[in-house]
C-alpha cells in the first residue's frame, strides 16, 4: 500500500508539471544497483515498474544503466522490456523531450552532471527527477564543498520545487529522503539570462569520495 501511495504521489507531481508539453514521457534510470543480491534495489525496481505503469510509460521507453549490473541482471531487464544502455554516461544525458530521471540514492556527482548537461531554461523544464532531495544534500554537505564541487545542484536548489515522498519506517534504507523534483516555468522565467551563460563542465577534485563510477575507472 505504501508503494502504491508513493507511486500515485509521484504520478500526480509528474503529470502536473508536464501536462502541457504534449510529448510522450521518457524515463531514464541510473544507479539502480545489483537487484539480484540487494533487497533495497529490488524494492526500488518494483517501485520503478509500478511508476511506469501508473504513468503509462512504455517499458521500452525506460532506459536503464548501472555499471555494476551483471550480464544476468541486464538480461532480466531486457526480458521485462526495458532498454539497457551500454555506455556509462556519468549522468551527462541531454534531454530533447520530457524525461523522468529515476535516481534513487545516487551520488551527488551524477545529479550535478545531469543538471550541467541540461543547464538551460528549456532543458531544466523538461526534467523531472525522482531521487534524493537537493535540500537534503545541501544540509548534509559542507557549504564550501557543495558550492564548489556541486555548483549546479547548489544553484538548482533555488530553481526547483520538491515534494517529499512518504517513507514507511521499515523502508528507511530504500526510500528515505526521496523527493519528486521539478523545475516550474514560473520560477525559471524569473532567472536572469546570465544564469545560463556560463556553464563549464564539472570537475571533481576528490574522486575517491565521488560516489559514482567514472568511465575511465571502469575495468
TrEMBL record:
Name used for this protein in its record: SRR1 domain containing
Organism: Oryzias latipes (Japanese rice fish)
InterPro entries in the record: SRR1-like (IPR012942), SRR1L (IPR040044)
Residue ranges of domain SRR1-like in the record: 18-180
One Pfam family here: SRR1
Gene responsible for this protein: srrd
Stored PANTHER family: SRR1-LIKE PROTEIN
Domain of life, source organism: Eukaryota
Any Gene Ontology CC annotation: nucleus
Membership in a protein family: Belongs to the SRR1 family.
Amino acid at each position: 500500500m505504501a508503494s502504491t501511495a508513493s507511486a500515485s504521489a509521484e504520478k500526480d507531481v509528474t503529470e502536473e508539471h508536464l501536462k502541457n508539453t504534449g510529448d510522450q514521457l521518457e524515463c531514464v534510470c541510473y544507479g539502480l544497483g545489483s537487484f539480484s543480491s540487494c533487497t533495497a534495489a529490488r524494492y526500488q525496481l518494483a517501485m520503478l515498474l509500478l511508476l511506469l505503469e501508473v504513468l503509462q510509460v512504455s517499458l521500452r521507453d525506460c532506459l536503464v544503466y548501472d555499471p555494476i549490473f551483471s550480464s544476468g541482471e541486464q538480461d532480466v531487464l531486457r526480458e521485462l522490456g526495458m532498454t539497457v544502455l551500454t555506455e556509462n554516461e556519468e549522468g551527462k544525458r541531454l534531454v530533447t523531450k520530457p524525461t523522468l530521471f529515476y535516481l534513487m540514492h545516487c551520488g551527488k556527482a551524477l545529479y550535478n552532471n545531469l543538471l550541467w548537461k541540461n543547464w538551460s531554461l528549456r532543458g531544466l523544464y523538461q526534467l523531472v527527477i525522482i531521487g534524493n532531495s537537493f535540500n537534503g544534500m545541501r544540509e548534509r554537505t559542507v557549504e564550501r564543498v557543495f558550492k564548489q564541487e556541486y555548483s549546479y545542484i547548489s544553484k538548482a536548489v533555488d530553481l526547483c520545487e520538491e515534494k517529499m515522498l512518504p517513507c514507511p519506517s521499515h523502508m528507511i534504507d530504500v526510500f528515505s529522503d526521496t523527493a519528486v523534483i521539478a523545475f516550474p516555468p514560473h520560477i525559471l522565467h524569473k532567472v536572469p539570462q546570465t544564469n545560463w551563460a556560463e556553464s563549464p563542465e564539472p570537475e571533481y577534485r576528490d574522486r575517491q569520495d565521488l560516489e559514482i563510477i567514472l568511465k575511465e575507472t571502469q575495468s
